[in-house]
Amino acid sequence: MTESVRPRARGPAYWQHGLAAAACFIALAGSPVAPCAESVPGRGEIPPAVAGALREAQIPPNAVALVVTPIDGGPLALTLNESTPMNPASTMKLLTTYAALNLLGPAFQWQTQVLATKRPHAGRLDGDLILRGSGDPSLVIERFWMLVHRLRGLGLRQIHGDLGLDKSAFDPEANSNASLDGNDLRPYNVAPDALLVNFKTLSLEFEPDPSAAVARIIATPTLAGIRLPATVPLAAGPCGDWRQRLKPDFSDPWAPKFSGRYPLDCAQQTWHLSLLDHTHFVGAAFRSLWEAGGGTWSGQTREGRTPSDAIALLVHESLPLSEVVRDINKFSNNVMARQVFLTLGAVGSGQNANPQRSAQAVSAWLTHADLAMPELILENGCGLSRRERISAASLARLLRHAYASPRMPEFVASLPVAGLDGTMKNRTAASGSAYVKTGLLEGVRAVAGYVLAESGHRYVVVAIVNHPNAESATGALDALLTWVQSQG
């Protein structure tokens, strides 16, 4: 992430003239977005509401990149620092998901294979059961239950061997979990894995029971071996930082503890946690589901490659890519985006997935689509990165290309709708008319997508802020969306 030096105090004239001089007008809807030296008087100038919000946040013009360009000949056009490489945060997911829709197709599905080292007989397996993953991003606990249920449907009841996890579809380096901010327990930092189950996330629901003076703890999914307290005491007072008031202790991931109290005013709350590593999470989830269905299993969980003579039992298919893309963009799911990104470097190459192959595959596709982006830096494809870079102009060209492509319906439907759903549910700017992906990192705020103006014209809008004060930029970004909707 690029961070500008905090600016000296500037007067109003600096902001008004500096912002206006940095902006330019794109004369034709079909013309490429390109750098320009100065704005056209009366057109292409930063809207006053946007300039005022940036000024109030003490964010200077050189920390902002903007593109507003009409899709169908509308009157508005605006650019500012559009060719500058910027850290886009989660708006990078637009590139990953659109590339995937083109390279893999909206009906693409991942496969998780279930195999055995011996053929089951009379409901008994005297050998190892093997799960071989391909990177399915949608293997949530409900779908993992379906896999286990189908296995039981084959008549298998007893497993007298180990559960082998074949994760060889991803190179080991693809699974490295160097979290961006050190918050390793937070699900947004979960690393990709060829056998990702339920995003490796345990959800703890705290449900107050005033009559018993406790909050009951409900864990989803149930993980065999996890020892959780059934309740925590209730406390009076405001909700506030309820997690800290619980005084959690996660030093033993198998036995989380809470020595504090849960505030009654919080009502029901859910805490999503990533406590176990991938291998132990899958093993604990499988054992819980298997034994809950009446099965027995006497072995352990281990990683390893599938033997060449293994016997195929069944294949579990993922949700189609079009649905996966919707979940990624609507809710900005980082690990799902990373799973898709890694898949781009593996499918059709005959090689295992790693970030370098994926970046090469995306770059090659961009060149083929006449969307080459020389400034592009891809690290993990989800935007949870300090290194990733793209310009507002490149992102705008991608959005224009998507709108004119056969993949437009799936792509646009995946974007959060302002005021209605996803990460834009609580943003009222251009409510119901803005289909935009958000981006949020420390020092970064961004929006990128489409706005339908009151006039009926449609616009591509990209705005990226890289500055230590970026957390205060939301008002400026919302003002831009509102301006396009009302004036376009």
Structure description:
With 488 residues, the protein is α+β, with helices and mostly antiparallel strands. It has 3 domains: 12-105 and 323-487, DD-peptidase/beta-lactamase superfamily (Beta-lactamase, 3-Layer(aba) Sandwich), CATH 3.40.710; 111-197 and 277-319, 3-Layer(bba) Sandwich (D-tyrosyl-trna(Tyr) Deacylase, Chain: A); 202-273, no CATH class. It is built from 12 helices and 21 strands. The chain has helices at residues 12-22, 48-56, 93-103, 141-153, 242-245, 278-292, 321-331, 334-344, 355-368, 392-403, 408-413, 474-487, and strands spanning 23-24, 64-70, 78-80, 111-116, 124-125, 129-132, 158-159, 163-166, 202-209, 214-220, 231-235, 248-249, 257-258, 262-263, 269-273, 296-297, 301-303, 311-317, 434-441, 444-452, 458-466. The two termini are 32 Å apart. The relative contact order is 0.19. The model is unreliable at 1-43 (pLDDT under 50).
User: Which class of the largest domain in CATH terms?
Assistant: Alpha Beta
Distance between the first and last residues' Cα: 32 Å
* Residue fraction in strands: 15-25%
Into how many domains do the coordinates divide?
3
Biggest sheet: strand arrangement: 1-3-2-21-20-19
What is the number of helices? 12
Largest sheet descriptor: 6 strands, antiparallel
Content-based structural category: alpha+beta
Q: Report the CATH architecture of the largest domain.
A: 3-Layer(aba) Sandwich
* Fold-level CATH name of the largest domain: Beta-lactamase
Q: State the helicity in percent bands.
A: 25-40%
Flag low-confidence runs: 1-43
